[in-house]
Write a structure and sequence with these properties.
The protein is mainly α. The chain has a single domain, classed as Rna Polymerase Sigma Factor, Chain: A, CATH 1.10.1740. Helices cover 59% and strands 0% of the residues. The protein has five helices and no strands. The longest helix has 19 residues. The N terminus is likely disordered.
């Protein structure tokens, strides 16, 4: 079963996306971009665009954490699985939960 959250449909597209330095490339900052909590609220409302922005923010980080212990294909699949779980469970997101706060802080400090 093909699991694509970003809708590109091809494994080659995802391989090119992660072709950088194993997830270590920094994302350019954008002062006008909505915060993670706002994006999660939008995803909970069904916004695929908000999910795409979360994908851009977190895919390389997730991939970078996974690739040292998984092969490249499994790490790419894990990224898609995580984002699919975000899509499916966005309505249950609690910005006050310790994990949500910690993940947001770690992403900010990695930028």
């Amino acid at each position: 079963m093909e699991r694509r959250v970003n809708g590109s449909g091809s494994r080659h597209d995802s391989a090119m996306m992660y072709a950088g330095r194993n997830g270590q490339r920094r994302m350019p900052s954008n002062e006008h971009a909505p915060g993670d909590e706002e994006l999660m609220r939008r995803v909970a409302e069904g916004s695929a665009e908000a999910l795409g922005l979360l994908h851009r923010r977190f895919a390389r980080l997730i991939f970078g954490l996974a690739v040292p212990t998984l092969d490249r294909a499994a790490a790419e699949d894990l990224v898609q699985d995580v984002l699919l779980a975000v899509w499916r469970n966005a309505g249950r997101f609690d910005p006050e939960a310790p994990c949500a706060r910690g993940c947001s802080r770690s992403r900010t400090s990695a930028s």
